[in-house]
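Q: Could you fold this chain for me?
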Amino acid sequence: MIHQPVEKNNMSRNNFFSVLKHEIDRIDKAKTSKRFEKIITGFTKEKSPKAIIGKEKYQVFNSNDYLGLRHHPLLKKAEREASEIFGTGPGAVRFISGSLKVHLDLEKSLAKFHKRDDAMVFSSSFAANLAVLYCLIAGQNKDSLVDNNVIVISDALNHRSIIDGIRVANLPKEQRAIFKHLDPSHLEAILESNKKIYKRALVVTDGVFSMLGEYQKLKEIRKIVDRFDKKYENGVLLVVDDAHGVGIAGKSGRGTEEIEGAKADVLIGTFGKAYGADGGYVASNQTIIDYLRESAATYIYSNSIPPGTAGAALKAIELLDKPVGKKLLKNSKENVEYFKKRMKNAGYQFAADSSHPIQPVLIGDPVKTSELVRKLFKKNIIVTNISFPVVPKGRDEIRVQISAVHTKGDIDELVKAFEEEKGINSL
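A: Sure. Below is the predicted structure, expressed as structure tokens.
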């Protein structure tokens, strides 16, 4: 005989559901809701594809697809071909069902592209950060020979995936330090004050900071890390998450490392932005990659990216060193410069002087910022507003993201829309 749950148990669950409902209401009231996404049903087939929402076509200025590669015919062809050979999914995790050749080819291509011994592919760069930081900070389990006699030092504006990766390692508070944003001298002071306390140090930072398009001062940080390496028994390791840099930054798209002329010990990247595909990766020396293959839970126990996606990513890396890739990189830089000049002439200011496709237009008020985004949407233009607590109060911005495949006409249309709504600042 099957017994139905008693009403009391149902009521207890309902109490928890009520707590969750109040939390949702709090988020909605704070105007920080993220679940009301615009539903895109397709894209137009033109040089700069427009998003189709309902019956309208919208110019996209809020995508991380910096080179426009996700719609490139050669990537679509590579995706189809890999899917035909290997199927639509990986089937299982790699240590169970084996690695597909397309994943190995992608890892070899990444290692060559970034001039590293080896690389490994993760389901996302968020998953890569969680695993890499946990494994390099705390080891993989109680039997691991990797101890946690380490201080972890993180830039104040690092991405949430880095913050969570450090949290997962569960270090005592005194072993976690934050250096001021883009302030290598503060990092140096932290390393100096802890050199006799811990056996090793791990410095972690974004390469490009996604709210302002700022590049980390990687060259200065690299010099500081190298200087302190001999002052810690087991050295100092530099980990850089260059998700917004790889594929787009630098003359050949090698990322922040190319811009700054300095390399990380462990480089984390993504295929989901400039490469036009999806998934994350880590590139490093052979010892670190071998260790991560044996210890990174989100690699060992989670499926890799679909073979079609891997095929598309592989083609993107190949294209970057060919004329088509070089032309896209050139277009990107020209478009960014053109947009900045036009906006400044229109009387707008930027929250930071960025040469990256991320261009933060400073508005300075959350209500005005959200209203301007709404008005631009009515003009069939999609942009994103960024307000507190993501940015400081009074630094509310519209984050415009310029693509290499945007035409000058597209940019003119965007600037014209900003000009027409200039009066919103007097609301």
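A (continued): Residues 31 and 366 are 10 Å apart (CA to CA).
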